Amino acid sequence: MKTIKVGMVGCGNFGNFHLTNLLSIPGVEVVAFATGNREKLLATGKRVPSARLYPDHKEMLEQEPELDAIVVSITPYRHGDLEVMAAKRGVALYIEKPICVTMEEAERNLAAIEQAGIITSVGYQGRYNGEIDKVKKILENHTAGLVVGKWIYSVPDLPWWRTRAKSGGQLVEQCTHVFDLFRYLFGEPASIYTVGCKGLNPPQPEADTEDCSYSTVAFKNGQMAAILAGCYLDTTKAVGDIGFDIYLEDSKIEYGFFTGVKYIDQSGTREVPFEPVYHKLAMEAFVSAVRDHDQSQIKSSYADAVKTLAFTLAANRSLETGTLVQL
């Protein structure tokens, strides 16, 4: 079995989370770390003493000619030319969502990726939960009426998160998982109308994102959905709500992203709890795809993630203009 040599860009909490999964996969060698945060770089480097440490992705790519893949876990506005450089060197990419905050950057990167033909995977790990495919199968044989997606929680403790130019806002950076799974279940959106409000959170410097929003989506297949997003809860007192509800003609599906799914009808409730191990499943699929050079093993390619980015940016555009946005 060929050893896959991996470099990591970003050594924060989620980078270290991915590192834990990578170190548990046979045939993977983490050979390098890169980040501008010296303290985090040294701390993460201690977990793999043999790995080489770099202050940025450019130096890592220049000094590591045998890299097979890079795992990218950095803030969305700081990618710069990372994807283009990796593509030109034939290095596969696993990129945490959102891939960036503008369509111009996404389309530039996609062109380089497609020209190089490298393997890509984007961190929409929810697609790798086997229960999602069971829900998808149910939808093939049942009529869904009302559909409600929810990501209602607190503001992440990250200084850049509430600045839309850096994160894209809650819809682009966080609730994107709901938008993406709805694309996975219902197909491509046709239009979206979004309204939002501010003032629920204490004022913060440079904060310009909505504290909550409500989106109405029409899909090309005729399905309608509402997506509720909020980042204002006091989670020492309140319980968050992250998932979606699907109201079928004869039953209801309640899906919790991190808890489980309930199938409810007049005969009772069948509950299927699950652990969020699909992050590891997504990483295992990426490693296997790189080893086999087989993009078909990936459930969320860069090209597919560009469509989810366009969906969430359309919601932002509707917020800004107060109009229905066609996709």
From TrEMBL:
Top-level lineage group: Bacteria
Q: Which residues form the GFO/IDH/MocA-like oxidoreductase domain?
A: 155-249
What region holds the Gfo/Idh/MocA-like oxidoreductase N-terminal domain?
Answer: 4-124
> Tell me, what is one Gene Ontology molecular-function annotation carried by this entry?
nucleotide binding
Name the InterPro entries for this protein: Gfo/Idh/MocA-like_OxRdtase_N (IPR000683), Gfo/Idh/MocA_Oxidoreductase (IPR052515), GFO_IDH_MocA-like_dom (IPR055170), NAD(P)-bd_dom_sf (IPR036291)
Pfam entry (one): GFO_IDH_MocA_C3
Q: Spell out the PANTHER family in the cross-references.
A: D-GLUCOSIDE 3-DEHYDROGENASE (PTHR43249:SF1), UDP-N-ACETYL-2-AMINO-2-DEOXY-D-GLUCURONATE OXIDASE (PTHR43249)
This chain's protein is named Gfo/Idh/MocA family oxidoreductase
Q: What is the lineage of its organism?
A: Bacteria, Bacillati, Bacillota, Clostridia, Eubacteriales
